[in-house]
Write a structure and sequence with these properties.
This protein is α+β, with helices and mostly antiparallel strands. It is built from 4 helices and 2 strands; from the N terminus they run H-H-E-H-E-H.
């Protein structure tokens, strides 16, 4: 899993990874409790940004833990384009390094 690899590279930042196994039902309570502890949220998914599950998850966090946020909730997603054929897939899917960079941005937000 790319997120796990990215987290392993960020030894200087403590990360709580929640792997939602289902989105219906969604365990948003677990995510909200994590945000209350950490004050931050980075949603990573490979679907496109618009109308993706990340938007729904951020909405639920805003409703349940808004005053605990210390940084803006952030989504790292595929670009809003038509999913390319297999030869162009590498342009659509991000790598662990990009996840690392987003973790750092969210963690150091002031």
């Amino acid at each position: 899993m790319k997120a796990v690899k990215a987290i392993e590279e960020k030894e200087d930042i403590s990360v709580e990874l929640i792997d939602l196994r289902t989105i219906a039902p969604m365990d948003s309570d677990h995510v909200i409790e994590s945000v209350k502890k950490t004050g931050r949220l980075l949603v990573v998914h490979e679907a496109v940004k618009t109308l993706g599950i990340g938007a729904e998850l951020i909405s639920r966090v805003n409703e349940g833990a808004f005053f605990h946020l210390e940084a803006q909730p952030t989504r790292l997603t595929a670009p809003d384009i038509t999913v390319p054929l297999p030869k162009g897939e590498r342009h659509h899917i991000f790598d662990p390094k990009r996840i690392e960079l987003e973790i750092k941005k969210v963690a150091t937000f002031e």
